[in-house]
Every structure is written in structure tokens, then in C-alpha cells.
Amino acid sequence: MYKQYFEKLLESGHVYRFFCSNEGLEKMKEIGELKKLPPVYSGKWATATDEVQEKLAKGTPYTYRFCVPKEGSLKINDLI
Question: What is the pLDDT of residues 16-71, one digit of tens each?
């Protein structure tokens, strides 16, 4: 049902495909904790291109994440 909307957001550059597993996210969180930093996503999939096509070809599961600016703030008016 929502796939068509995600595709529009993807095409417009507002979201990207996110292939990190829960285990991968936990590992990033642990590394941040060891360095006394807040949990922060590296941003790898926000800029990946060739790797995305490889993952899609393999059928790797993914979700979508919103692109966020490196500076300033992001406001989302959620109508749902």
C-alpha cells in the first residue's frame, strides 16, 4: 500500500534504502558507547550507489530512512 509513496520519496531524494541489520546497528551503538559518544549512524547507505544495486540484486531486505540535513533541523508534518 505504501510502496508507491516510498518510491516517490526515493525518487525525490527525501529517503534512501537502508540495509543495516539490527546486529550492525547494535555494533555501531557499542562502539559509540566505548568511545563515550551517543549512538550515531555512520550514514553509509545515505550515499551508497553501486553497493545498493548489489544488495537489491541479491534480494537483501531493507527499509527506508529519511535523509536529514547535516546542519539545521528537519521538520516533518505527519498527517497520519
Answer: 999 998 888 888 888 888 888 887 777 889 989 899 999 999 999 999 998 888 78
Nearest residue to 65 (alpha-carbon basis) of 74, 32, 1, 29: 74
Radius of gyration of the chain (CA): 14
pTM above 0.85, yes or no: no
Q: How far apart are CA 41 and CA 38, in angstroms?
A: 10
CA 53, 54, 59, 61 torsion-angle sign: negative
CA 42 to centroid of chain Cα atoms: 10
The DSSP secondary-structure symbol of 34 reads H
- Give me the residue label for grid cell 527499509: 63
**What is the per-residue burial (b if ≥16 Cβ within 10 Å, else e) of 22-52?**
eeeeeebeeeeeeeeeeeebeeebeebeeeb
